């Protein structure tokens, strides 16, 4: 019987210790690389949102939708009818929607959905992504139920902005109900 049975294991420890240290070092480096990729959203150039959900580059006038996260939100900042006044005889119209954010920058790549309320007054165009200036342009065509009544004096629109791939009821999405008064 050996007096100190663990003595031979000490010699094995001299070999194992550098291997354990090397494995821990590699694991640490892999963690740092993964954290670095997460901080750039895997795009290599875009930065991750700051702690308030806003883009970290404050000099941008327009930021990609990927650089905004909760608690920040998109906002329907402006809308404009490009094709002239809307009235009872309108057959079609073009609407320009500008999407901004609670971070005071316009948002590129946001998905914009618009429909008339009540429904079936105008066609529902496909969702459009905002461009470099944070705007999307949608074209509407008259349906059978326009105007909704002979007393109608405005066209009411539901406008929604979402981050593509994100739940439209959560995240950075927003919605707004707007009224466009009949003119000329």
Question: What can you tell me about this protein's structure?
Answer:
The protein has 184 residues and is an alpha+beta fold. It has one helix at 7-39; strands at 62-64, 74-81, 92-101, 106-108, 111-117, 128-129, 135-141, 154-162, 174-181. The strands form 3 sheets. Strands 6-5-8-9 form a 4-stranded antiparallel beta sheet, with no helix packed on it. Strands 2-3-7 form a 3-stranded antiparallel beta sheet, with no helix packed on it. The longest helix has 33 residues, at 7-39. The radius of gyration is 28 Å and the shape is elongated. The N and C termini lie far apart (109 Å). The model is unreliable at 39-45 (pLDDT under 50).
Compact description:
The chain has one helix at 7-39; strands at 62-64, 74-81, 92-101, 106-108, 111-117, 128-129, 135-141, 154-162, 174-181. By secondary structure, it is an alpha+beta fold.
């Amino acid at each position: 019987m050996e007096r100190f049975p663990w003595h031979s294991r000490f010699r094995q420890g001299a070999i194992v210790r550098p291997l354990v240290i090397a494995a821990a070092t590699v694991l640490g480096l892999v963690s740092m690389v993964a954290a670095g990729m997460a901080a750039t959203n895997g795009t290599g150039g875009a930065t991750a949102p700051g702690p308030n959900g806003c883009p970290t580059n404050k000099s941008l006038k327009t930021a990609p939708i990927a650089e905004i996260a909760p608690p920040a939100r998109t906002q329907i900042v402006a809308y404009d009818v490009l094709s002239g006044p809307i009235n009872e005889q309108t057959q079609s119209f073009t609407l320009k929607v500008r999407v901004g954010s609670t971070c005071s920058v316009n948002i590129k790549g946001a998905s914009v959905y618009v429909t008339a309320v009540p429904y079936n007054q105008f066609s529902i165009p496909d969702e459009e992504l905002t461009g470099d200036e944070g705007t999307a342009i949608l074209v509407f065509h008259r349906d059978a139920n326009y105007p909704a009544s002979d007393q109608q004096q405005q066209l009411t629109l539901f406008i929604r902005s979402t981050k593509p791939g994100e739940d439209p009821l959560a995240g950075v999405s927003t919605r707004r109900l707007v009224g466009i008064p009949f003119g000329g």
